[in-house]
Design goal:
344 residues, mainly beta, Thrombin, subunit H, six-stranded antiparallel barrel, 24 strands
């Protein structure tokens, strides 16, 4: 049985929230080299991580502070609409069995008790709005239905809303997972963290799964498709523990719930007439590839390479998983690991 990483503990204390990046490094191999091999390059790789600080790259991802004791993640998709998980705006059973044999949703929370905080951490972020209404599906089962909108009590001038993906999720597609959940080791929830290049392992008509994990505090957070940069899913549930090689997490597909999106857009308490994702035609998800680093833990890609020009963040590659422009797929000193390396 999978477990809903339900809204957390007291904010001033631990914030034991929903899923964060407890992700397993995908080490693809065997792709044809783009040019002749050279000597392997030194690498620092994190095989199992929960992500690295977002560092301002995902401004539309917000924290949802639930009453005095809860934390979830969400994404601003219009000036007055936040996309999140149903169990973040409702009280639910602790254990979630799918297919469901029991009632999951017990009651909907008062949306006024949910505050929206923007920024990269709870310590430095700013509360920008509160909930005015929630838009949810009629089902009391969260299986395939763990998605909701929070209508805000004001329209926000910033951050810029995120757009929806222009592709449908499929096995093998790579996503960037973002949320305010628990970090690696003793790192508590409350800092926005991301893990990119996460592979979708399987897909159903209303959900998809990834092997890398999110953890407490990430529920409701987005999966951004890496090519388009649009949202393809919302964190629903995952296995416990969330930080080992057997971790698995489930996202609700956003493309499976067009009726919910239409209802949110038409809600009478909306303060804005702007559509979902309007003004944003993303050219790709945020990435750390090519960014500076000292160790792998500083990279959302989980790999820090060093060449003659210095260290930089990069990602695994191979087996059809091609590198971005300006990089080539080559061997590293880590056994079996190929990574995207800067062109000379």
């Amino acid at each position: 049985m999978l477990t809903i990483h339900a809204p957390a503990r007291p904010l001033v204390r631990v914030l034991a929230a929903l899923p964060i990046l407890t992700l397993t490094l995908a080490v693809g191999c065997g792709a044809p080299l783009e040019e002749a091999e050279e000597s392997p390059i030194a690498v620092d790789a994190s095989p199992i991580v929960r992500g690295a600080p977002s560092r301002g790259k995902d401004p539309a991802v917000v924290a949802l502070l639930i009453g005095e004791s809860g934390l979830c993640s969400g994404t601003l998709v219009a000036p007055d609409l936040v996309l999140t998980a149903r169990h973040c705006v409702s009280t639910t059973a602790a254990g979630i069995d799918c297919p469901s044999r029991t009632r999951h949703v017990q009651a909907d929370r008062d949306p006024k008790t949910i505050a929206v905080l923007a920024g990269d951490s709870l310590a430095s972020g700013t509360v920008l709005a509160r909930g005015a209404a929630s838009v949810v599906l009629p089902s009391t089962s969260l299986c395939g239905n763990d998605i909701a909108f929070l209508v805000l009590d004001r329209a926000l001038a910033s951050p810029k809303p995120a757009a929806l993906a222009n592709v449908t999720p499929a096995a093998g597609v790579r996503v960037r997972a973002v949320g305010f959940g628990r970090g690696e080791g003793s790192v508590r929830a409350g800092e926005k963290r991301a893990r990119e290049h996460v592979r979708i392992t399987s897909v159903t008509p209303s959900e998809f799964q990834v092997g890398e994990a999110t953890c407490s505090g990430d529920s409701g957070g987005p999966a951004f498709e890496m090519t388009s940069g649009g949202i393809v899913g919302v964190v629903s549930r995952g296995r416990i523990p969330c930080d080992d090689a057997s971790a698995a997490n489930t996202y609700t597909r956003v493309d499976a719930h067009g009726d919910l999106f239409a209802r949110a857009l038409a809600h009478p308490l909306r303060k804005s007439k702007v559509g979902i994702g309007a003004g944003g035609s993303p050219s790709g998800a945020a990435t750390d590839v090519g960014g500076t680093c000292a160790v792998a833990a500083e990279c959302t890609t989980a790999i820090c390479l060093r060449d003659a020009r210095g260290p930089y963040c990069t990602r695994s590659c191979g087996s059809g998983d091609r590198c971005p422009r300006g990089f080539r797929c080559r061997a590293t000193t880590a056994e079996g690991l190929r990574a995207c390396q800067r062109n000379p």
